[in-house]
Amino acid sequence: MTDYFELFGERRRPWLQPEVLQEKFLSLSRSVHPDRVHSLSQTERASAQERYVQLNAAHQCLRETRERLRHLLELELGAVPREVRQIPSDLMDLFVEIGKTLRESDAFLLENAGVQSPLLEVRRFEMSQHWTEKLLALQQKVTARREVLVEELKRLDAEWAGSAGQLRQLEETHHLFSYFDRWLGQIRERLVGLSL
Known about the structure:
There is one protein chain. By secondary structure, the protein is an all-alpha fold. The protein has helices spanning 4-7, 18-30, 42-63, 65-77, 92-111, 118-158, 164-195. The protein folds into two domains: 4-63, Helix Hairpins (Orthogonal Bundle); 89-195. The protein contains seven helices and no strands. The longest helix is centred in the last third of the chain and has 41 residues, at 118-158. It is flat and about 65 Å long. The two termini are 43 Å apart. The model has no long low-confidence stretch (mean pLDDT 91).
C-alpha cells in the first residue's frame, strides 16, 4: 500500500492544513502534469502519468478528513478500520431525528412527483419550503457537531504520537466522521430533490 503521507512529505498524523496540502499537491504535480511532459518519450510520459495519477489519488484521500483517517488507521494498524455495528448512544436522538425527517421528506417528494395542477403546484411549493427549512436546520445541527469533532481531531493531532490509545480514539473519530458525512450527504440529496 502506498503511504500517501510519505508521498507528500508529511509525517503520519490525523490533521493536515487544507491550504498547505493544496500547495504541496500543486508543487509536486507541476513537473509531472500531462501538459508539461508531452514532449518526452513514451516511457517518460507513462511514468509521469503514473506519478500524476498517484499524486492525485493521494491528494483526494488526504484532503477528505474521513478518508485521511481511514488511510492513517490502515497504515498504522495494517488493516481497514472495523465497521461500526452500533450507533453511539450520544448520537441516538440525532440519528432518530434524521431518519424521521428523511423518510417524511422522501414521502413528500414521492407524493408530489407528478403534480401538474396549478393549485397543487402552489401547495407543493409551500410544502417544499417547509421541508427545505427543516432539512437546512438539520444540516446546520449535523454540521455543528462535525465542526466540534474537527476541533477534537486538531487537539488529538497536537498530541499525536500514534500510541495504541490514540489509535483507538482515532478509530472512533473516524466512525463519527463517517456518520456525519453520510448524514450530510443524505440531507444534501433531499435538498436537491426539493429544489427541482
